[in-house]
Amino acid sequence: MSAGGESELVDLKARLFERQVREVLAYAVGFPTDEKMARICEEYQADPGLLFVGYLRGDQVLACAALRPAGPDGAWLERLAVTPLERRRGLGRQLLWDLVHLSRLRWVEAETDDDAVGFYRACGFEVAELAGQPFERARYRVTLRVEGDSLAADHLAAPER
Description:
Mean pLDDT: 87
Helix content: 25-40%
Low-confidence stretches: 152-161
Number of strands: 8
Number of helices: 4
Radius of gyration: 15 Å
Oligomer: single chain
Shape: globular
Largest sheet: 8 strands, mixed
Order of helices and strands: EHHEEEHEHEEE
């Protein structure tokens, strides 16, 4: 994979408790305390169906994502995080593209907030505000639909390699 320079998509599930992996994952966690991060990592590691992958450049973790299957052709995107220095270079979009196509998904859903809803919109996700949330900030359900071998929206077209 070459988004954001020479990087490699790898399975990070066995490395969940490594400091660098947890630091990157924490960018996608609201108020990431040590206890909360430990709980998330334990949950992810215990779930045999969960896919936890990321991009490495050398031994540096650049981005990661957790994807939970939801039926035979869809998945729930639990989290997607990109390090601040790698943002706005196409790495998050590339990670989404790889997850959708490598997993042969027909749809992906996630929940997000104002900080990331623009990213999902730019990637072609449909956005619906969730009503009655106990949070001060708005929350959104985002959905990406895949048609055949191509994405429903051209926004998530394969980045050039």
